[in-house]
Amino acid sequence: MKLPRRHAPRLFALFMAFNMSMLMSAVLTLVNLGPGGFPGKWLHAWGVAFVVALPLILVLAPLGQRVVARVTE
Fold first, then answer.
1. Sign of the CA dihedral 20, 21, 22, 25?
2. Which has the closest alpha carbon to 44: 31, 61, 29?
3. Cα atoms in the Cβ-side hemisphere of radius 13 Å centred on 12
4. How far apart are CA 69 and CA 56, in angstroms?
């Protein structure tokens, strides 16, 4: 069963949110286990998250679009 094409943008967002949140939470958890205060940890995690997120979204976006195309009409 395929869903109507009008659902494609939301399905794509769901696919990307799932993958990005899974991967980024893993990275941020590892980063936040180090010593130091909150502001330093947060700024460092933010920098790491951006550097990791950009290539991941560029790699995962086409895959997400193909997955959504297969489950929609």
1. positive
2. 31
3. 15
4. 20
- For the record, the structure tokens of 18 come out as 């799932």
* 15 strand-pairing partners: none
Apex CA 25: angle with CA 70 and CA 52, to 5°?
Answer: 75
Q: pLDDT digit string (tens) for 16-60?
A: 887 887 787 777 777 777 655 656 666 777 787 778 878 888 888
Sign for the CA dihedral angle at 24, 30, 33, 35 comes to negative
Q: End-to-end CA distance of the chain, in Å? A: 9
